[in-house]
Amino acid sequence: MRFSKTFIPTLRETPAEAEAISHILMLRAGYIRQLAAGLYIYLPLGWRVIDRINRIIRQEMDAIGAQEITMPALHPAEIWQATGRWSEIGEEMFRLKDRGRRDMCLGMTHEEIITWLASMEIRSYRDLPQVWYQIQTKFRDEARPKSGVLRTREFLMKDSYSFDRDEQGLEESYQRHVDAYHRIFSRCGLKFYQVQSDPGMMGGAGAHEFMAPSPAGEDTIVLCDSCGYAANTELARSTPRPQPEDHSDWDLEDIPTPEKRTVEEVSEFLNAPAEYFIKSLVLIGRDGPFLALIRGDQELHEKKLMRIVGGFRQAEREEIREILGVEAGFIGPHNNSLRKIADISIRQGVYISGANREGFHTRGIRPSVHFDAEWHDIHVVKEEDRCPECGGDIRIERAIEVGNIFKLGTKYSVPLRAFYLDEKGREVPIVMGSYGIGPARIAAAAIEQNHDDDGIIWPESIAPFDVEVLPVTEDTDVMETSEEIYTTLRDRGIEVLIDDRDVRAGVKFKDADLIGIPYQIIIGKKTLKEGLVELKQRRTGKVERLTSSEAIERVSSHYKARG
Ligand code: ATP
Ligand code: MG
Description:
Elements: H1 21-28, E1 32-36, E2 39-42, H2 44-63, E3 67-68, E4 74-76, H3 77-83, H4 85-88, E5 95-97, E6 103-106, H5 111-121, E7 130-139, E8 154-164, H6 167-187, E9 193-196, E10 206-213, E11 219-223, E12 230-232, E13 253-256, H7 263-270, E14 278-285, E15 288-295, H8 302-309, E16 312-314, H9 317-324, E17 339-343, E18 351-354, E19 360-365, E20 374-376, E21 395-409, E22 419-421, E23 427-429, E24 431-437, H10 439-449, E25 451-452, E26 455-456, E27 467-471, H11 476-491, E28 496-498, H12 505-515, E29 519-523, H13 525-529, E30 533-537, E31 543-546, H14 548-562
Parallel strand pairs: 3-7, 15-17, 17-20, 27-28, 27-29
Antiparallel strand pairs: 1-2, 4-6, 5-6, 7-8, 8-24, 9-10, 10-21, 11-12, 11-21, 13-19, 14-15, 14-16, 18-19, 21-24, 22-23, 25-26, 29-30, 30-31
Helix pairs in contact: 1-10, 2-6, 2-10, 11-14
């Protein structure tokens, strides 16, 4: 393609509204424009990238026997009501009415619709297994659309769904997706991790996310390099380090701690580090008040606790007084009969906590001796903690979720009556899986992971073009050689952009680096006199002087070898 005839509106200035690097560079390099919050237009270069990503996704989905279909983006409410998600999902769902005043919504995802399809069409065990997928638009009224195309209100998703006779079949479909996802993200040139994740609103029996590490990511993941444990911090477990010293010599005694309420204050006052404290939080759950117990140096993970007890809220100061007869700063796990959910970090050791007595703390509290509790992992993982599997060191990294996979089980097939008849003629619910990928997030994550001060450095597989040809001057011989290189490469099936604009060489060089096409062939008057052109690699900046046919040969054989 010719630069002069392609709409590539590059910008010199950094747009004020953008913070994430991928957002800045996609705007500056003329890949996207914003229509409104969370709504983006893909310009020609941007769309070429998405198209290449989609092609990789299609190849790998087809390779595992998934069949492409396409479903409407506009859905009748009844199907979403049948699974309960019409009322479970709040403002994130775009809802509307048709002219007959019937409730409709714009699809956030397609579990309901595809399960409805299966319920109508799949009759017998002979129809199974099936894997159906689409690359189609989703709508979500995200609370905080941000970071350019990383979180938008309308976006493309590759969503696939597996239908199996039983758990064993689901296991196989799931594993095939795991393999396909590894190939897709590797082929797209991403650095990524597969991590355990929270099934959340999808429900179901197990889930993984594919995470591209980047400071622009909204997620944090916990990684152990020794054993490979990897999990989203939404559910990651860890073993907090043990207390630094043994204090089994502490007897149980109440110590006056006037006006000292927080762990920090009492820790300083009693000269004992935070690891020796139990924080007792009074919470109000569905069945009334209970205590959440956590070590002084740890933080309560509300989501983990919520998975155990359901919804809860903090008790007010007044309520605490009514329930325990003591002020918030002096609560302890002993001497009271409230239900207790305790973090595993305080299972061993000897502790200090509020004495349930105004102005006092108790030292020498022994878990399971002085109080009983239900033991769970309810703390936020910290980098100093240990791997829950092997005890090794862990790392915490920010990451972009580029894809995820869920074992749905029969969560959707039962309410939507997607049953099949087994060999014995019995009606059995279909066992399902659901698998998503965001092509726009792949593009943005690739930029986050591959750029420098001058611009984007595309992984070769998803660049908008393979090579950019840059004639430096308007001289006839320069233009002729450039055109010849351009047409020869193009005829060999290489995607080539030629910068045939009537602009200064400096502008062409700057734009070329900004746009980030992997190879540049630069044709200058002086070098051409010596019969040479320059082949520049965008990633390394390495420049080689070659004859034009050598340059053509080099580039085309490189891409041929890659297939
Ligand atoms: P997140 O936790 O980031 O909101 P999600 O768990 O809601 O993502 P899914 O519903 O499973 O994501 O969607 C599958 C994939 O679609 C995600 O892995 C991501 O790549 C992409 N995706 C999800 N929401 C958005 C969005 N608002 N904008 C762009 N891509 C998105
Ligand atoms: Mg979401």
